[in-house]
Write a structure and sequence with these properties.
The complex is a heterodimer. Chain A is α+β, with helices and mostly antiparallel strands. Chain A has a single domain, classed as ApbE-like domains (T-fold). Helix content of chain A is about 30%, strand content about 25%. Chain A contains eight helices and 14 strands. In chain A, helix 4 crosses helix 5. The longest helix of chain A has 20 residues. By secondary structure, chain B is an alpha+beta fold. Chain B folds into two domains: about 230 residues, no CATH class; about 130 residues, no CATH class. Chain B is elongated. The chains are: A alpha+beta, B alpha+beta.
Chain lengths: ~325, ~500
């Protein structure tokens, strides 16, 4: 029973909700009303075939990406591959590590191509593609744990910033992590790059062989996981400050390296309430702060929650899943 | 991909990802899970909580606040709606939820599914006497034909929107706009419609219509003639003649059958326009926004001079509109010219009563769809038996807990007042078609007899355990409780 893709406006009348299988997008565009409706229509039209496109190449997309790997053919699949390719030689990574960001990016492109918008975000379960025109900006808040929301930081992204993608990864999220970070939020040129990088950095926030960390082969939980028998984190006991710092330091080293390679602009790493921030590069005025005003909130993908993007207008609503029927 | 999985792994076919899901885990979407070896949908899902005090004014669908400990609510007081339930359509599979509960000692089963309706539309009743457009003319939204004008009813104009021919039979954009218009109307949003050679209206379910930019406030109590009939007795003896000004039929008490029967004395009053039958006049003026839907601001303009043969000095005359919003009281002077005077106390009440009897003008939206197709397969292995059971009122049909009226004849064609359903109960698929919730409730014994998927029946308590995925709403105070046994199959 292939369920049809679901398309609806959220009750606020402003945001578009697109849902198909595991893909769940919350979209908001700002601009003239006609432009918004054209953009939403374009998004919906592009959306309906995406899952089928991806699934046609699913076995390939679940295979490790390396130099000589077979390249996928679909438009989104190619973006996924390109996003993870820089990491392929150094670690195990499959194009699936960038699927959420790549889908968000594709939908954003379809919208921007269809209408002239002031600003737009496409939030795919915490992996967000942004469009900013003229002197517009977004304020973004970061949440460490979707089940117990509190902001561990916020930032403002303006047109002048190179950042157009935000992604968050962590072991509490819907996807598996090899690391122990509660949340790693990454700012990059694009959502697909941010998605892949967040996965890699979250994997690096780690304490190998620590007895307080329960790890299970991914295939034991999800038989068809792209991670196969790799050990994924299932629980982390409370750690000492020293251990937390050591794990975060591992992650920061990876993040620094990625920034040197030009793969990311900035990253915030969160583990058991401690936050470390990769200082922004000179090109990036966006800086983390504790501003409480939020326009759109990044949140880690939520493993325990329902079907939809845990996109949270914090301060306005209590955290929780976005009920597509609400 | 591994070839061999533990025996309790299920493969989900809800989407092309085709996840293998182990027992106790969920698929990639987190919406389908393997519960005890069964593939189970675990979506947020609307449950209705029976209004605690039926009949008291209650804000419909107050969302329950905060934590729900599962104790407040007795099992029989919760009804599982199809909103958010998903669908197994178009497969011959049991519906997503088949829930059993005991109500007043009777075992009831509710089959819960969202239906995808290509054959569907809305019937609009717009409370206005204004001419919206000729019958059969196209109704357009965003320039696309989405329906047509049907009839004028008493105090209301009827439009029929949607239907399969607009949804899938016309151009792509006609289908898209039709779907959008239906969806908005069903979800209570305002929609702007224009009628070929007619008016432009803005309508939303349960709200006053706006016709050519003007908001309708009240319906008239009846036409001018009917108003005479209704109030003749209250006027008799207190006034010598009454003219009820109405664009449709202006009524005159002394000439009207009702006045004659009471023995009201002839006044010889003469009215502009075309006399239909005694005391009933058409076209006393042009249509407009003045008295009784005419363009009149001074009612005396429709009167011809009083004649000494019939009229007499001090004759008392009331002129009033069909909504009671406009009224004037006159007495004739020695030269038989009407002179306006203050409305006597004795007549004030009757004018007030006309106003009181004018109901608020609203737009009513009835969703109409056909559930006669393969949706029935989610309920029973033998679909015609469901139709039969609905016809015999053994099975009650509700939409999001709201009662559905079932059309007589073949199939399960139903209508439901969208304002009695929870908010945003409708969705759509790009086919284009509307997604609407539908629930079938019947006695457990009857369910078995009609070939129901009895192996898939789950106790209500089981469904309630998934409370994290659910939203509790208070049921609409005016809706009969959908689980109440023996309440018949259809109710409007």
């Amino acid at each position: 029973m292939r369920e049809p893709a679901f398309i609806r406006m959220l009750p606020d009348g402003r945001r578009l909700h697109l849902h198909d299988g595991p893909i769940d997008l919350i979209i908001e565009a700002d601009g003239p009303p006609q432009a918004i409706s054209s953009a939403y229509e374009a998004a919906a039209r592009r959306f309906v075939s995406i899952l089928d496109e991806l699934c046609r190449e699913l076995p390939l997309l679940r295979t490790r990406a390396e130099k000589h790997s077979t390249r996928p053919r679909g438009a989104i699949a190619r973006h996924m591959f390109a996003a993870v390719e820089p990491y392929g030689e150094d670690c195990f990574i499959t194009p699936m590590a960038a699927v959420a960001g790549s889908v968000a990016e594709e939908i954003l492109e379809s919208m921007v191509g269809a209408a002239s918008l002031e600003r737009t975000y496409v939030n795919n379960g915490g992996d967000i593609a942004l469009h900013l025109a003229d002197r517009h900006s977004y304020k973004v808040g970061m949440v460490e744990r979707p089940d117990r929301p509190s902001l561990f930081g916020s930032l403002e992204i303006t047109t002048a910033d190179p950042v157009r993608g935000i992604a968050t990864s962590g072991w509490r999220g819907r996807s598996f992590s090899l690391g122990i970070a509660d949340a790693v939020t990454v700012l990059a040129d694009s959502a697909s790059s941010a998605d892949a990088a967040a996965t890699v950095i979250a994997n690096a926030v780690n304490l190998p062989d620590h007895p307080g960390i329960t790890r299970v082969p991914a295939s034991e939980i999800s038989p068809d996981s792209d991670l196969g028998d790799l050990l994924v984190t299932r629980s982390v006991e409370p750690l000492s400050q020293l251990e937390i710092d050591a794990a975060l330091e591992n992650g920061l080293r990876a993040a620094t390296l990625l920034r040197e390679k030009g793969l990311i602009h900035s990253a915030a790493l969160c583990l058991q309430k401690r936050v470390r921030v990769l200082p922004p590069s000179h090109a990036l005025p966006a800086s983390l702060s504790t501003d409480r005003f939020l326009k759109c909130v990044v949140c880690t993908p939520d493993g325990s929650s329902g079907p939809s993007a845990p996109e949270i207008p914090a301060e306005l609503e209590p955290i929780g899943r976005t009920n597509p029927h609400a | 991909m591994p070839d061999v999985f533990p025996p309790d792994t299920v493969r989900c076919d809800a989407c092309p990802v085709l996840c293998y899901i182990k027992r106790g885990h969920a698929g990639a979407c987190d919406r389908y899970a393997n519960v005890e070896g069964q593939l189970v949908r675990v979506d947020p899902h609307i449950l209705l909580d029976r209004a605690k005090s039926q009949g008291t004014p209650l804000v419909p669908f107050l969302e329950r606040e905060g934590d729900w400990d599962g104790k407040i609510m007795k099992g029989q007081e919760t009804f599982v709606t199809a909103i958010g339930a998903g669908t197994t359509y178009p497969d011959y599979k049991p519906a997503p939820f088949i829930v059993s509960s005991e109500v007043e000692g009777v075992d009831m089963v509710t089959v819960v599914t969202e239906g995808i309706f290509s054959y569907c539309g809305v019937k609009l009743k717009i409370d206005t006497d204004r001419h919206l457009g000729p019958e059969r003319n196209l109704v357009r939204a965003q320039g696309e034909p989405v329906g047509h004008v049907t009839t004028a009813e008493y105090g209301s104009q009827m439009l029929s929107l949607g239907g399969v021919h607009h949804l899938t039979g016309g151009s792509k954009s006609e289908g898209r706009v039709t779907c959008e218009t239906l969806l908005d109307l069903c979800n209570g949003k305002e929609v702007e419609l224009t009628i070929d050679d007619g008016a432009s209206v803005r309508v939303a379910a349960g709200k006053p219509p706006v016709v050519n930019g003007q908001r309708e406030e009240r319906m008239r109590v009846g036409c001018g003639s009917a108003t005479i009939g209704m109030f003749a007795k209250q006027w008799f003896g207190k006034v010598d003649d009454v003219v009820v000004v109405d664009d449709h039929i202006t009524g005159v008490l002394s000439e009207h059958q009702a006045g004659k029967l009471l023995g009201v004395r002839e006044t010889g009053i003469a009215i502009q326009g075309r006399r239909s039958t005694p005391g009933r006049y058409f076209q006393v003026a042009e249509p407009g926004t003045g008295w009784g839907g005419t363009n009149i601001s001074d009612p005396l303009t429709i009167l011809k001079p009083f004649k000494p043969k019939f009229a007499w000095p001090h004759l008392r005359l009331l002129m009033v509109s069909t909504t009671g919003e406009q009224f004037a009281y006159y007495e004739l002077d020695e030269t038989l010219r009407p002179v306006e005077k203050e409305l006597p106390e004795a007549l004030r009440e009757s004018v007030g009563r006309i106003r009181e009897n004018c109901e608020p003008a609203l737009t009513t939206v009835l969703f109409m769809g056909g559930a006669g197709g393969s949706l029935r397969a989610g309920v029973t292995e033998n679909p015609v038996k469901l139709t039969d059971s609905v016809k015999r009122k053994l099975t009650r049909v509700t939409c999001g807990g709201a009662p559905a009226y079932i059309w007589p004849g073949g199939g399960i064609t139903f209508m439901v007042d969208v304002t009695r359903m929870p908010e945003n109960a409708f969705g759509y698929v790009p086919t284009p078609a509307l997604v609407a919730p539908i629930e079938f409730t019947l006695k457990k014994g009857d369910y078995a007899v009609l070939g129901g998927h009895v192996d898939y029946v789950r106790p209500l308590a089981d469904v309630l355990k998934e409370k994290e995925r659910q939203r509790q709403l208070v049921s609409h105070a005016q809706n009969p409780w959908p689980l109440k046994p023996h309440a018949g199959g259809s109710e409007s």
